[in-house]
Task: structure prediction
Amino acid sequence: MSIEAPHGRGREVQSEIFRAGISGARPVVPTDPVRLAERAEAALSAEAHAYLAGGAGSEQTMTANRAAFDDWQIWPRPARNVADRDLSVELLGHRSPTPYVMAPIGVLELAHADADRAVARAAASLEIPCVLSNQASIPMEEVAAASPAGQRWFQLYWSASDELNRSLLGRAEASGCTAVVITLDTHLLGWRTRDLDLAHLPFTRALGIAQYTSDPVFAQLVRDRAAHPDPDPPAVRLTPRTVAAGLTIARKGAPLTGVGVRESLRSPLPRAAVETFLAVFSTPQLTWADLARAREWTSLPIIVKGIVHPDDATAALEAGVDGIWVSNHGGRQVDRSVPTLAVLPEIVERVAGQAPVIFDSGVRSGADALIALALGASAVGIGRPYAYGLAVAGAAGVREVMRHLIGELDISLGLAGHTSLAELGPQTLRPAR
Result:
């Protein structure tokens, strides 16, 4: 597939949908982001929807992320030759046919059994970099085997165990990942009210910890914990839900025991795996100085994710990172946080071309992506929309969500009077207020 004619070019997507409509077919997933979210909610359990769709506190940050796009209007310029359009970008030494990046999302098994494999296959078919989550449902090596041609990055939550951090980064490089994304804004788990009201955290049921249970360093940490169990564990009331959770933990923890689920039920290792994960998942002691160790552990480019202040962008550059990812975790960490689009221009100005600036949080359409690119983003991360596509129609749903986003961006670019993303800038937009 050539960079000049990527899958998802707007007119082709439109024509395909309209031609199929002659025989009564409809798009695999809705093109409207609101209806897409509604379809996904109908397909998901209450717990899965809360985890994937929810945010921190009263979810004011999620609202602010979306509202920030209302501050800008695209300023169309007609009567220009826009017949040939180019959506490609240069990113970390690689020319990508579109500016999109599949942002890391954990516990995708909540949406579909194929989880990370499905997302990686869809991303590879469109030549979009796919960021594998540290909280994946499928180990990175299995995802690589399922999608060997795709461009994969690995996202790391900085663990309390340096040996585990080193091991995960080493595995990422060995499995063919081409970059590392270190998420900085989750050193504490956000106050996520939807999950709290349901008393549901997937990790306590051994969901979303496949990168850990497949890791030799983590396995040793689990064995150490199992050898010295809590002498006075908290009492757990036996209910059908307790039994179901126990079965899930045994099934997900089976790789640590090397035996089947039935035998794992009698082993202390699966439960110890959950307890070990909760103990080492993140550390509030992480500082910029700690990031220097990542350079010792991997030769891959390092991007830091979770930057929302210009001074932190400066600190990241001084730490020698290769990319800045402007993100507030989709509103999942700090309620009433600054919206990412509002601070994007300041951060772009501070970075001053020294590193690519990836942007996410609140993007729901190709028009949203165009605004972010016009304000200086080098690339745009997509999160919840593709997870919703996964919930509705598996890998096909993920692929179609991304094709719709590519198609709308392409159409919007042409209608704005431009033929390449390099032409976008503040002059492409007009303040709405």
User: Anything to note?
Assistant: The two ends are 42 Å apart (CA to CA). Residues 45-189+285-431 form a domain with the TIM Barrel fold (CATH 3.20.20.70). The CA atoms of residues 310 and 350 lie 6 Å apart.
